[in-house]
C-alpha cells in the first residue's frame, strides 16, 4: 500500500466531509527526542483549530532499536555502542535538541537513561485497546524527558499507567508475560509498508504522510489540506 506524501493538490481528490472525524496515526518511540518534539508540535497545530475535537491521534508502535539492552545505560553510552563516535559528540547533539525543545517550552533532561522499549510498546498496545494510548504515552514520555520518571523500572511504569486509569494488576500481568508482542510487531511492519524509515512518522486520514518532526506551521497546512476549514475556490 502506498501513501501520498505532502501534496497541495489533495483537495482536488476529495477531502473529509466538514466536521467528520479525522484519525491521525503517529508512529513513534518512547526515547526518540524528535518524536517528543514532533508530538507536541502536532498537538499544538491541532489545538489551534476551532474544530480540534474532531482529530483523534492514534499512537502506533515503532521500536527504533530492537537490539537495545534491557539494562538501562546513559544516552551517550547507548549511542556510541550502537553508532560509534564519542560521548562529547553525542552530548553536543543532545544539547542542540535540548535547546530546540526548551525554546518550545518543553522540559528536556540530559540525564535520561536508555534501554529496550519493547515492553513499553506492549503496554502502549494495551492502553490503545483501553482508549488511553495517547494519554499513557504522553504522560510517560513527557515525564521521562523531564527527568522525572524512569520508564525502564517496571514498578515506576506500572504506577504511571495507573495514573491514567489503566488497571495496575493487568499492566503487571502484561509486563511479566508476552501479551501484545505481535500487536507491537504488526505496527512496525505496517508502518514500513506505508513508507516509514524512521520516526516520528505521521499519517493523516490514510491519505497524507509526513515523515520527521515537522514544524507546527507545516502540520497546520496538512490539517487544512486533509480537513479544510475554508472552501476551495470554485467549490460549492
TrEMBL record:
Q: What is this protein called?
A: DsbA family oxidoreductase
> Which Pfam families does UniProt cross-reference here?
DSBA (PF01323)
Q: What is the lineage of its organism?
A: Bacteria, Bacillati, Actinomycetota, Actinomycetes, Micrococcales
Alphabetized CDD domains for the sequence: DsbA_FrnE
- All copies of domain DSBA-like thioredoxin, residue ranges: 23-223
InterPro entries named among the record's database cross-references: DSBA-like_thioredoxin_dom
